[in-house]
Amino acid sequence: MKYRSYMLALLTVLTAVNSMDRTALVLVLQEIKVDLNISDTQIGLLSGLVFALVYSIAGVFVGRWADRGDRPRIVSLTTIIWSIGVASSAFVTSFLPLLMLRGAAAIGDAGLNPPAHSLIADHYDRTERARAVGVYMSGNAVCLVAGSILCGWLAQFFGWRLMFVILAAPGIALAALAWLSLREPRRIREQGPSTASLEEQQETEIATASWLSVLTTLWRVKTYRYLALTATTASFFGSAIGGWMPTYFIRRYEWSVGETGTWFGMASLGFLLGTYLGGELASRYATNRETLQLRAAAVCIAFGSVLTTSILFIPRTDIILAAMVLNSFVFSLQSAPTMSIMHGLVAPRQRARAIAALYVLLSIVGGGLGPLATGALSDALHGVAGEGSLQLALMLLAPGSFAAAVLAWNASTTASADLDQRAAEHRQHSILNAAREATP
């Protein structure tokens, strides 16, 4: 096995394991609500906003660290922090300590995606990157499929507390494996100015640029701006709906946690297939045709918005399952191509911060405000809809992701020009550096 294939496989397993706690938490929200006697608004804070805020603050530091430091070491250390935070959640007896431990888990979780995406982009070029990103992001899909089923039945038989301890255990072993086996492929080595090439000196300047400078540069790129807003909008409405769907079905159909986990694990098969297939199709049939990739992404998001809304009106559980599989498949087809395109829009030594900036938006607006908005709206509608307040809140929010489709279509109008400009700048810098170094 080539090293880069091994690296990709290990990072994929890590992202699957690191996502387990979020999948598990969504499944046991109702049990935690009863056990700790908390409101739907507090559930929204627990499953979204606090985790998102801490994740975002940590992500800012991790992004800069990953652009300058040893990325495999960052992955290892933060995975250990994640494991400790998740395992400790088993011992809380009230809302506030659990909230604080979710913050600790968020710090650990923030340390994976920026360095992982940056490492993948270093090992795979523009023609292969969508496929590689699809494989990596399929780790989240594996978590949703296997994790939903596993976590559901672990909670059913052992309770939600022991479930968290079991889920945290593999993180320590994987952190050790990453520390021992992954290599940092930095192009810059520790050397003095007299021996460093001009290209390496330029990369050093890029890597040490301030966050404000990086964000200003990114925001000037129209395609990055459109894609960041696309992902953020989709994340907000996706989290607002998806984060509450298990609780909704438990309340409406009186499913057990184990049954709910099994149903959602089966439904997530579409997510697994779509995430991988989206990257594969983009690399095989639409290489260097980013306009086509993003227009297809816009269509997928729009269709997914319609399916999400329709699920809330379907009375039969077998049809609901089929619709959920199709919805997760269609919506996830766009994930790998859009993320791969974002990699190509930024300088190599700023990729970790570009991804960190994106995940800050996804975390705060999507993962943070999305579930909180649903919980607060459900509480506000309780006087009007009674026990049906959650369903009504979901119905009102579900069509909103259509806005993300519009933004993705806008990105398709600028993507090719922005990517070609970035590639031309890189070629020009390489030619100038070669000419200067050849001059005696």
Automatic annotation (TrEMBL):
GO terms for molecular function: transmembrane transporter activity. GO terms for cellular component: membrane. InterPro entries: MFS (IPR011701), MFS_dom (IPR020846), MFS_spinster-like (IPR044770), MFS_trans_sf (IPR036259). Keywords: Membrane, Transmembrane, Transmembrane helix, Transport. It is found in: Membrane. The keyword Ribonucleoprotein does not apply. It comes from Terricaulis silvestris. Pfam families: MFS_1. It is a multi-pass membrane protein. It comes from the Bacteria. Residues 7-416 form the Major facilitator superfamily (MFS) profile domain. Coiled coil: none annotated. SUPFAM superfamilies: MFS general substrate transporter (SSF103473). This is L-galactonate transporter. PROSITE patterns: MFS. PANTHER family: PROTEIN SPINSTER, SPINSTER. The chain crosses the membrane at residues 43-62, 74-93, 133-155, 161-182, 226-250, 262-282, 294-314, 320-342, 354-377, 389-409.
